Give the backbone structure.
Amino acid sequence: MTKIKNYINGDFHNPIQDNWLDNYNPSNGDVYGQIPNSSKDDVENAYNAAKAAFTSWSKTPLDERSRILIKISDLLEANLQRFAEAESKDNGKPISLAKAVDIPRAASNFRFFGNAITQFASESHESIEPNAINYTLRQPIGVVGCISPWNLPLYLFTWKIAPALVAGNCVIAKPSEVTPMTAFLLGEICNEAGLPKGVLNIVHGLGGSTGQAIIEHPDIKAISFTGGTSTGAHIAKIAAPMFKKLSLELGGKNPNIIFADCDYDDMLDTTVRSSFANQGQICLCGSRIFIEQSIYEQFKVDFVKKVKALKVGHPSKSDTNIGALVSKPHLEKVKDYIKIAKDENGTVLCGGHVVNVKGYENGYYLEPTVIEVPNNNCRVNQEEVFGPVVTIMPFASEDHVLEMANDVKYGLSATIWTNNLKRTMRMSSQLLAGIVWVNTWMLRDLRTPFGGVKASGVGREGGFEALRFFTEAKNVCIKY
Ligand code: TXE
């Protein structure tokens, strides 16, 4: 049994009230560890450590902060296999994905922001009045909270803490209680990299108690959150009257719009990936697929054939395409949506059943599922399923598909497949989304703004957007 601990003030601590949660291995349903179910007192200890470290950390020269983050990146890369195995075991994702995406991206997050901070300039203005100048100071906020989800555990955890730290803040971070392992392992890496004690504090526990204690803490001045839309709304209600800065990266129900003039084979291969990567547990997955009428029947045959060829298996196997879903409750939630879709006259073209992987019968496995839906108003097209389930339906015209694509409460990302430049520009400007991919999916440049509109969240992460979020701008005007 792996008993992980909170990382506070550079050391590892049991929860003060000695409350623990079971940690499950989704690939076989076994309890394989325990995590602290931390209380307000643990959060207060973390806050006091962060507060005590803030003065010196915020005054640490930029190039020293940068050097430490790049050292963390180097150490993550040197420990890739160990972290990838831990991530795959905790989340259920294939080891191939953890090794190729999750852990390298976590290392990139530290390296990118370790470099970006040295390029982060702020503006000055020769005033319109003679002999006066304005310049902007971008100062760290103080102690900030970072709360992250279970789908891309270390990837999204570090996407928040890297910019927060390098901007000079001290951090209290809570990973999801469902996937705590790699955040726990990160603590040792930070110590080895020379991150001063108390600068980063990692507190584990349930969202409604430990997470809530972070949100409610009067002296934690900013919260960066990624997770469900309903949770985001709940957090905003608490944080707003406390005037905390908020960054909310929430759910998505992303359209994947396919025109007949696309590069068909490239579209097909990428659409399989954008539908089922990480068992469909990525907020950016294209879960609503709209296909131009003239190629709809052909697409249906070709896409279903490729989906049926995907291998559902144990995450540790190198030939596994679809691993285990993250938890039993989540598996049940996704299965419910398949039933709801059928009740609303959807037709399951392939998948729809749990899979008994030999030797791992208690694991949380589900076939990749394609459902043909009669319209865009059905629940499976309106609500985030967050599993290996996509819907398909034809569209007759650009206006028709644009209306359907935007007719959902979310607005995170959208994908368009076409070689028509004018159509690309028209559609991209009218799609209600924070990210639009054309003839690709999940091609990421960390300098670009990342986030959604409508119920997909508030604010942007990435590049200088993240550094602006984690700093306060102060304008100084001098008359000389
Ligand atoms: O998110 P939650 P989960 C969506 C997806 C998924 C749903 C729930 O639909 O099914 O959200 O996933 C902490 N105060 N996405 O359970 O519950 C919680 O402990 C403070 C999309 O992961 O929102 C965890 O650390 N914190 C998303 C984090 O919030 C609270 C990726 C996320 O938990 C809290 C993941 C509270 N009251 C899920 N309640 C994306 N856009 O990438 C919970 N938490």
User: Anything to note?
Assistant: Residues 2-250+456-479 form a domain with the Aldehyde Dehydrogenase; Chain A, domain 1 fold (CATH 3.40.605.10). Residues 147-151, 174, 176-177, 207-208, 211-212, 215, 226-228, 231, 234-235, 249-251, 283, 384, 386 surround TXE (CB under 6 Å). The mean pLDDT is 98. The chain has two domains: 2-250+456-479, 255-445.
